[in-house]
Amino acid sequence: MKILVCIKQVPDTTEVKIDPVTKNLVRDGVPSIMNPYDQTALCQALAIKKKYGGRVVAVSMGPEQAIKELNKSLRLGADEAFLLTGRELGGADTLATGYALAQIIAKIGYDLILCGNEAIDGCTGQVGPCIGENLQIPAFTYVKKLEIKHDEVIIQRDTGKSIDTYSAKMPLVACMMKQGTETIESVGDVTRKEVKILHADFMDREKIGVQGSPTKVAAISVKEKLQNYLQVDYRWSCEERLAYIINGGLEKKKVSLVRGNKEVLVDALIKAIVQAEEEKGNASE
Predict the structure, then answer these.
(1) How many structural domains comprise the chain?
(2) What's this model's pTM, rounded to 2 decimal places?
C-alpha cells in the first residue's frame, strides 16, 4: 500500500507579510512551519504504515525552501519525498494547485492520499477535493478518524453537528482535521534519503500557476491582534470574584432564579406566562 501525504510549507501566522503589488504572501525571510493539518495527515499515514505496512510518500508544491518540511517528514518516518517546484507554478490558486498536485500524484502512484483539511495561511479547504476531482476518486473532508478494514477504509467525518461514518474502497482522498495531540518521534539518520525535485514541464501550462487560476486577489489585509478589553482586578477577594461571575457583571441582574423539582418549575413557568399575558393585556388597554 502506498500512502501519499500532501505537505504544505506555510508561514508562521504570527509573521505574515503581504506583497503590496502581487498580493501574494512574502516568504523570503519569513519563518515557516509544516501546516499543522498536514502534520496530522502525516501522523495518520505513519500510524497506518506501522499497523498495516506499506510506504509513506510526502509530496509538496512550492519554492525550494519547502525542502525543509519534506526533510522533516523524512526524519519522522516517510520513505520518500517529492517537491514540485518552478516559477511557472507561482501565483496558483486552489484550482491550479489541485490540478498540479493531482498530475504529480498520478505520476508517482498511490493507493491512499492524505492531506490536511485546510492550510492555516488560506483556510479554504479546497485543494484536497480538487485533487480528488482531477483524479476522479472520492474525496472526504473534515475527517476526524480513519482505519483500514480489509480492502475498505472506514472514515469518520466531524461535521460540527454530528459524526458521520462512511466506508469506501481505495483509492481515495481523506482530508484530515487537526487533532493537536499527535506525537511523532524522529527516526534518526536520513542521510540516505533525499528530496526528489520534480517540474511541471509535462503539464498543461494553461492549467497551472497564474494562467490556470481563475480567481485573483483584489485586496488582502492582516488583522491586528485583538485587544483584551476585559480587565480583572485580582485584588478582589474570592467571594467578590465569584459574585462577579454569578451576577454576570458588577451589577446584579434583576432575574429571579427558581429552583426545585419539575413540578415546581412547571408551575412557576405557567405563572410567569399568565403574568406576562396579563401585563401585555393591561398595556394594550
Answers:
(1) 2
(2) 0.72
The position carrying cell 480538487 is: 130
Residue 197 is part of a domain; what is its CATH number?
A: 3.40.50.620
User: Is 156:165 a contact under the CB 8 Å cutoff?
Assistant: yes
All three cell numbers of 268, joined, read: 412557576
d(C-alpha 55, C-alpha 111), whole Å: 10
End-to-end, the C-alpha distance of the chain in Å comes to 79
- Specify the 3-state DSSP secondary structure of 118: coil
Closest among 199, 201, 202 to 82, alpha carbons compared: 199
Last residue of a domain, one of 190, 207, 224: 207
φ, ψ (nearest 5 deg) of residue 128 = -55, -55
Q: Which structural domain, as residue segments, surrounds residue 173?
A: 2-207
The crossing angle, in degrees rounded to 10, of helices 127-135 and 94-108 is 50
Render pLDDT for 33-85 as a digit per residue (tens, 0 to 9).
899 999 999 999 999 999 999 999 999 999 999 999 999 999 999 999 999 99
Report which residue type is found at 267. D
Domain presence at residue 258: yes
What would the DSSP string read from start to end of 33-80? EE-HHHHHHHHHHHHHHHHH--EEEEEEES-GGGHHHHHHHHHTT-SE
